[in-house]
Amino acid sequence: MPVVETRNLTKVFKEGELGAVNDVNLATREGEFLVFLGPSGSGKTTLLRMIAGLEEPTAGEILIGGRVVNDLSPRERRSAMVFQSYALYPHLTVYKNIAFPLKAQNVKKELHKDKVEWAASLLGIGALLQRKPRELSGGERQRVALARAIVREPSVFLLDEPLSNLDAKLRASAREELELFHRRVGTTTIYVTHDQVEAMAMGDRVVVLDQGVVRQIGTPREVYDEPADTFVATFLGSPPMNLVEMGDFIIGFRPEHFRVAETIGDSPKVTFDLRVENVEYLGAEYVLSGSLAGRRLDGKKVIARLLLGQSFEIGTTHQFAVPEQHLKFFDRSAGKRIEPRTLEWQ
Amino acid sequence: MAVRRAKVKSTGAAQDPALGTAMFAPAALYIMLLIGVPFFLAMYYAFSDARIGNTDLHFVGLENFRSILQSPSFRSAVKNSIVFTLASQIIVIICSTILSIVLENKFRGRGVIRYLILLPWVAPIALGAIGWKWILDSIYSVITWVLVWLHVFKPYGAPMWLGEPHLAMASVILVHCWRLIPFSTVIMLAGQTAIPKEIPEAAAIDGAGFWRTLFQIKIPMMTSIISVAVLFGTIFTFTDMTVVYILTAGGPYDSTQTLPSLAFATGIQGSDLAAGAAISLFLVPVLVVIAYLMLRVAHRAEAT
Questions:
Q1: Stated pTM of the model
Q2: I want to staple A250 with a disulfide (CB 3.0 to 4.6 A). Which of A242, A317, A330, B254 is the partner?
Q3: Complex-level ipTM beyond the 0.90 threshold
Q4: Which numeric CATH code is attached to A239-338?
Q5: CATH number (domain holding residue B201)
């Protein structure tokens, strides 16, 4: 039985306007780390808040543990949430912050101390228990928020961009800590982010959202290698997938699959002429941008990612190719993925 | 960039102290003339035998204070001032906390209700108090009329709201509350916006119900703004005499006489300026303590 399931979940904030969340169907698997990924305004936070019970759905159902919880208050859903701002209670010490859910749910007072200490030691903040939130660093606050969420052993964790308030250096280590933490406690987790790196690195599965619509649900490998549509194809990956219109369909290929023709070998491939327009040296690799030359594709902008080794002059033209198995095909009008076609343009 | 500019400016003023003084002078002059002069004049009068219509002034030492401390009406005024201030502040704080929490939620007609609640503060106090004088009048009181109509009291058997000591005090307190509640509601509404909306949401998810969120999260987070409202309210109440003066003029039998109204009655109406000044000087120590507390609260709010 899935821990969290949504059926045709919809949220419309203003009548007549486009929904913030439209007809979302998804189900978590036991113990998994599910990531909602999308640009800002894609409805990912609204979706999470509806699951938490902070936002009332316009239509559809939310199930937690197999039970419809639409009419239950957040407290009755027994889910724990970590907010982007952490929302620690500023007037309470770390200890009292962590103990608050226990108090609120009438857990026996004798148990508080053990449980708080258990949660604090799990996150390595045992020494901070008497501090106030304002005396903590960003990373410590995040851990307190996590400890407060874990202390009552919820059935599901809801995390709303918990890393976005940390600086870049701290974010990487906090991400790793979160992964370890999830592996240790094994609680089903839903994680909202707009950062594709976080989504790819942490998610067991990724739900890609755009304008309140689920574009694709799959493992990080699936959404990266087999994007369901052009939105997913360009939202994931940096630089994004090259899309080239060809008649009534679009072909797509990742910059890292777009290589100098002779390095590809004997496998079936499709070749292009690339006029180099700009070269960025990024240490471990080059990012080449340019336009295709010749015939129907003349002037189409593309990007290639190349390992070091060969240097390219700006303005020169080279023969590049994409192995055939790495070509993706999309329907031109809807942007949906379609079956591979044979290419006839030469 | 901004920092550098500010620095340049400040060195400019430092190099030219005359300019700095000139810029500062209007404010200093304003405070000196409108607050400093009357204050020191009151101090001076308090130690003299100043009377209205008499240009002779003699230093009399602590004589005024000695006679005031012995007068029963001064003692009852001190007691009344304390009762008046404490009771109205308690009522005001409870009501305005409730109001601010209710008005924070969005509902239909919130704008109209906010406006209506603000009205008593905006309306001139003299007009409001005269309205209340009619409402509480011994003959024409609407309240009495309604209570008689409801058969709570027999005709002519209803209490005289402003004519019996305890009722008069209660009436004065309630009218003053009517006036102060909007003011502290506005302060509290402003303070509530300082609570990020995620905090009550986090409390809801943590399992706290309405009352727990209110008493353990919201109100504790509002303490500094509540203290600001209380301190302002205390000053407005402790030094105010408008409501008392218009409704009861301190009567019956001095039962609603507070320190400011007694000072006015003695010093201006009774033409004993010296005694009036001495009475009003008794307000100073209390106000100094409140001012000190206010500065501390402000400092603490800055530090967090």
A1: 0.77
A2: A330
A3: no
A4: 2.40.50.140
A5: 1.10.3720.10
